[in-house]
Amino acid sequence: MIVQTKTDIDDLSGRIIKGVNKGLRKLVETTAANDGSLVVSDGKGNPQLISAKEILKTLPKEEL
């Protein structure tokens, strides 16, 4: 049985979130480079087609 401390779990969670954000940014950048659009939710569950270039403007700056 593997016992993990809260610090280990928090560290793992942080790395997972960072990886997901990195993947999302890459998806949006690649789609924007191809003048594409992505389907996103409007917050009420309704899909909307939005230009990847517009989404890219709303993403936070990439961490170094």
Strands, helices and their partners?
Blueprint: H1 6-33, E1 37-41, E2 47-51, H2 52-58
Antiparallel strand pairs: 1-2
Helix pairs in contact: 1-2
* Quaternary structure classification: single chain
- The spatial strand order of the largest sheet comes to 1-2
- The strand count comes to 2
Q: What number is the mean pLDDT?
A: 90
What structural class is derived from the secondary structure elements? alpha+beta
Largest sheet data = 2 strands, antiparallel
Poorly predicted sequence stretches spanning 5 or more consecutive residues: none
Based on CA inertia axes, which overall geometry fits? elongated
Number of domains: 1
What's the number of helices? 2
Care to describe what's here?
The structure is a single chain. The protein is 55% helix and 16% strand. The protein is an alpha+beta fold. It has one domain (11-58). Helix 1 packs antiparallel against helix 2.
In short:
With 64 residues, the protein is of the alpha+beta class.
Labels describing this entry:
2 helices; 64 residues; alpha+beta; two-stranded antiparallel ribbon; single chain
